[in-house]
């Protein structure tokens, strides 16, 4: 991967065409770098994947929190729900909503999180999870 020394954008590769040698070119400025017939790789950089500690590990999910959790459920229910929201879109901002009604069991409390999954000029999508039956639904 090479970058333009003028503007910093990633250079694109162009195959040889009608006697013109292959080259790297910048799509935004006039910079062009012609390649020789035999190219030697001068530098090789090995990328190392960054290791990140998970927010929840499997042991945390199994153990849960206290003896009773949100709405009097068994321990671990809230952690399981948090994990589901975590998978949706990175680190969540989860709150309890007292006005949401579950479409399955008609329970009046649910956890919710808003995620911007469409373009910026569209409203955010709200994901809900019932605290009683754990059914998930969304409102666009």
TrEMBL record:
One BP term from GO: termination of RNA polymerase III transcription
Superkingdom, taxonomy of origin: Eukaryota
Zinc is among the record's keywords: yes
Protein name in UniProt: DNA-directed RNA polymerase subunit
Record keywords: DNA-directed RNA polymerase, Metal-binding, Nucleus, Transcription, Zinc, Zinc-finger
Binding-site residues, Zn(2+) 2: 102, 105, 130, 133
Subcellular locations according to the entry: Nucleus
Membrane-crossing segments per the record: none
């Amino acid at each position: 991967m090479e970058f333009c020394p003028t503007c910093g954008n990633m250079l694109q590769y162009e195959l040889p065409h009608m006697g013109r040698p292959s080259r790297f070119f910048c799509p935004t400025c006039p910079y062009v770098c012609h390649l020789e017939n035999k190219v030697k790789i001068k530098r090789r950089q090995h990328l190392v994947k960054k290791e990140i500690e998970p927010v929840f590990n499997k042991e945390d999910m199994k153990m849960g929190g206290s003896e009773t959790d949100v709405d009097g459920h068994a321990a671990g229910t809230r952690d399981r729900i948090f994990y589901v929201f975590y998978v949706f879109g990175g680190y969540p901002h989860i709150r309890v909503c007292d006005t949401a009604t579950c479409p399955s069991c008609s329970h009046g409390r649910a956890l919710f999180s808003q995620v911007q999954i469409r373009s910026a000029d569209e409203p955010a999508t709200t994901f809900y999870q019932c605290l009683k039956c754990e059914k998930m639904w969304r409102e666009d």
